[in-house]
Specification:
The chain has strands at 27-32, 38-42, 46-50, 60-63, 87-93, 98-103, 106-107, 116-117, 120-125, 133-137, 155-156, 162-166, 171-175, 183-187, 205-208, 214-218, 223-227, 234-235. A four-stranded antiparallel sheet has the order 1-2-3-4, with no helix packed on it. A four-stranded antiparallel sheet has the order 5-6-9-10, with no helix packed on it. A four-stranded antiparallel sheet has the order 11-12-13-14, with no helix packed on it. The protein has two domains: 23-138, Thrombin, subunit H; 147-236, Thrombin, subunit H (Beta Barrel), CATH 2.40.10.500. The model is unreliable at 69-74 (pLDDT under 50). It is globular, with a radius of gyration of 18 Å. The protein is mostly beta strands and 236 residues long.
């Protein structure tokens, strides 16, 4: 189950502890594993691991596994399996021990180069993985079933099914294991945005319950919408 457990008798510590810092890059995605280690992506096309109980705020470079050739915004990025672009969102799947990355931000190959984009969701193992596997996209930005656009967050259920809220194409697609194409489960398959309950506008956040209902942060419409499994419209 992915349902959160909230203890009604919990007492929260108000002490603020700095887990990680960066003098060069801003942070985007964040996730935690079952050992309370923290994974954070930054604007330098990197993902760092911050070990639980460590007194250091420097972290350990988790991805990419090859060193960048120069220091520049997004300079660590690339399109190979051992590289990533700027990762906007992270999702830790603790059952199968994987870290999913929304690798849809830019990276650069030189000081005067144009921005490049991978438009893919990568899966890296949490136990010493040295490369990632593409689970969705990777075929450029577009509306084809094997394509995605910009993605800020992702969700993976206990069966390994991946849900992708696509900001660019105003829809949510579902990707099952070993299938190279996604199926639209919310919004328009044609990438049409709108304010009716049959459409979305720049969805960013997502959560799926045990019945397969999809909850979407429909950012452009300033609302959260629930889409039932197989539904053609959402409800507020």
């Amino acid at each position: 189950t992915r349902s959160p457990f909230l203890c009604t008798a919990a007492v929260y510590d108000n002490t603020v502890i700095t887990i990680g810092t960066s003098s060069s890059y801003g942070f985007y995605g964040i996730g935690t594993d079952l050992d309370n280690n923290i994974y954070a992506s930054n604007s330098g096309a990197q993902v760092y691991k911050y070990s639980y109980g460590s007194n250091s705020t420097d972290g350990i470079l988790y991805a990419p596994t090859i060193a960048p050739g120069f220091a520049y915004y997004g300079s660590a990025g690339g399109s190979s399996a051992t590289q990533i672009g700027t990762v906007y969102g992270l999702f830790v799947e603790p059952v199968s021990n994987y870290l999913y990355m929304a690798d849809t931000g830019s990276y650069y190959t030189g000081y005067n180069s144009v921005p490049n984009f991978n438009y893919r969701i990568q899966r890296w193992g949490l136990n010493g993985s040295v490369s990632g596997t593409t689970m969705a996209g990777g075929a450029g930005s577009g509306l084809a079933p094997n394509q995605i656009g910009t993605v800020f967050n992702i969700y993976v259920d206990t069966n390994g099914v991946l849900y992708v809220p696509d900001v660019t194409y105003h829809r949510v697609t579902k990707w099952t294991l070993s299938v190279a194409v996604g199926v639209v489960v919310a919004g328009s398959e044609y990438g049409v945005k709108g304010s009716s309950l049959a459409l979305l506008n720049g969805p960013q956040g997502i959560w799926v319950d045990n019945s397969g209902n999809v909850y979407v942060s429909d950012t452009g419409n300033h609302r959260v919408v629930r889409w039932a499994r197989g539904g053609r419209r959402g409800v507020l």
